[in-house]
Amino acid sequence: MKAIILGSGTSTGVPRIGGEFGLDWGDCDPEEPRNRRTRASILIESDSGTRLLVDTSTDLRQQFIANNIHKIDAVFWTHDHADHAHGIDDLRPLRYGRTGPIPGYGVDETVRRLRQRFGYVFAGQFGYHTIVQLETLNQLRMCAGIGIGWTVMPHGPAKSTGFRFDCDGKTISYATDFSEITDEMVSLFYGSDVLITDCLRREAHPTHANLTMSLELANLTKAKKVALIHLDKSMDYATLSREIPAHVDVGFDGMVITA
């Protein structure tokens, strides 16, 4: 099983639009391709070819093209914030040729908010097919041969969902957009072969993990491999790579991690 990091950046991406020259790279070296970050999403792929998408980032079409993705078996949402959900319409071409909608899952509140905002995706409209059959995670334990575990995580005043994917004795866990570590998170992610974790910046933040918190989660869960994502413009790839333990990598767009 492997994970493809489709997008490794924060809600504004890197570089951020603006600044003296129209693009704000912050502390990131613009000559380093791994500093160019789209909004966060990942793809889980089993050896048998099953593909599970996590989040529909606002850069989803670009990410599909860059990684030659033209088919998925299901989509999971961590939460409904714009950078994780508003690329949802880019699923429409992946519905073509299917006999039914793409299965989609989220916790109750995420499902409610997505239905409210993107009703046409889940019910069809004006002769267009339903794109996604959206259901809650409550009873889900397996999806297309991959075991599914999840927990709700604090995300400042909001909530996000962390996921654990199990297949053929291997585990990939995904924890983005969390602001504190709970016992439930440690239990779910414990012993992961791969942990992909939120790591916005070095300084503390009210709604995201900083570097210290990300490394603490990696230590508490005893994850074998760790990748840092949701990185802002203060997190230069080369500089950060020199600061972290050997089993931890700075995630980047297009990075493939095998469990």
TrEMBL record:
Pfam family name, one: Lactamase_B_2
GO molecular function, one term: phosphoribosyl 1,2-cyclic phosphate phosphodiesterase activity
EC main group: hydrolase
Cross-referenced Gene3D superfamilies: Ribonuclease Z/Hydroxyacylglutathione hydrolase-like
Sorted UniProt keywords: Hydrolase
Positions of the Metallo-beta-lactamase domain: 38-230
Its EC number(s): 3.1.4.55
Record-linked SMART domains: Lactamase_B
Entries under PANTHER family matching the protein: HYDROLASE C777.06C-RELATED (PTHR42663:SF6), HYDROLASE C777.06C-RELATED-RELATED (PTHR42663)
Protein name according to UniProt: Phosphoribosyl 1,2-cyclic phosphate phosphodiesterase
Protein source organism: Novosphingobium sediminicola
